[in-house]
Amino acid sequence: MNRRLDTMAFLRNTWYVAAWTSEIGRDLFHRTILGEPVLMFRREDGQVVAMQDRCPHRFVPLHLGRLEGDTVQCGYHGLQFDTRGDCVGNPFDGKLPRNAKVKTYAVHEKHQIVWWWGGDAAEADPALIPDFSYLEDASKSKVPGYKHVKAHYELLVDNLADLSHTHILHRSNLGIDNPRGEHEVTQVGDVVHSRFWYPSIPVPPMYGRYLGDSDAVVDRWTEITWNAPGNIRLDAGVTYAGKSRGEGINAIGTHLFTPETETSTHYFYCHVRDFKVGDPAADESIRRWQQEAFHGEDAPMIEAQQQSMGGMTDLLALKPVLLASDAGAIRIRRVLAARIAAEEAARQAAST
């Protein structure tokens, strides 16, 4: 199917990352997800609430209003809404229109993340949230971040599924000459694993700095685990050639992609490491790397890719040249397309 800008073909009955838990407090926080304006805040008891960021009266954004207790007051004419989206106050004449209702969404906090359900709230099962429990491991250091990217989210998933690009796009930190590696793609259910393995290579510059040995010969691995629709765990590291991974440097990259619209994405990331734990200098070094690589290299390249594709969001519909290293990205796209098609078929069957 050739997807254009107006189709909004997203998987609905699934969990999306709406925010890091630290982003949501007692202020009215808003973010567009799957093309829908979403308002989020914490109730006085600490629970997160998500509702449509639009007053049903004049359709102004509710985040321009204020929070009084657990009630949101529209900043235009003052209608008040409780956490169920019901209108509970009208300062003009006190009458409460029966159709003055704001849509609410299912949300769940887990692994330092606020998860938002994109479909029928009755089907929002927290057990379906992928396992990112390592984000709560106190024995590891973590450097989280966020980037808004002007591109379709599957292009960002492609970027992580094919990490052969790191030697070229991220050359100053991860590049080596003539990288020759092994690649394996496996699938368990709807979960896709894409593994790259580079035995006995010159140590990439960034890892050389961490090892304190820029002349080392190492084995390097990058292994991603993808859960629909855009949630990726990346296990990466190096060890001296022939040594066990436990003797080397290991890190976990968390890369979570939530569509804002068809051509823009919320990119949440977090670097989790078991070396130099608690070292502020190491934190700052990784933060600089994230800015250089994600903000300064990946995002501009993928945004340029989206611009080059024009109004298209389905890369495969353009019939690109495919390389062996694309196998993981292609598998992911096929799994996701099948899930979306099945969901649409079920929706159509239910409406007949």
UniProtKB/TrEMBL annotation:
Keyword rRNA-binding: no
Record carries keyword Ligase: no
PROSITE patterns listed in its UniProt record: RIESKE
Cited InterPro entries: Cholesterol_7-desaturase (IPR050584), Rieske_2Fe-2S (IPR017941), Rieske_2Fe-2S_sf (IPR036922), VanA_C_cat (IPR044043)
Taxonomic superkingdom: Bacteria
Listed GO MF terms: 2 iron, 2 sulfur cluster binding; dioxygenase activity; metal ion binding
Positions of the Rieske domain: 15-116
Keywords on record: 2Fe-2S, Dioxygenase, Iron, Iron-sulfur, Metal-binding, Oxidoreductase
Name of the protein in question: Aromatic ring-hydroxylating dioxygenase subunit alpha
Species per Swiss-Prot/TrEMBL record: Ramlibacter aurantiacus
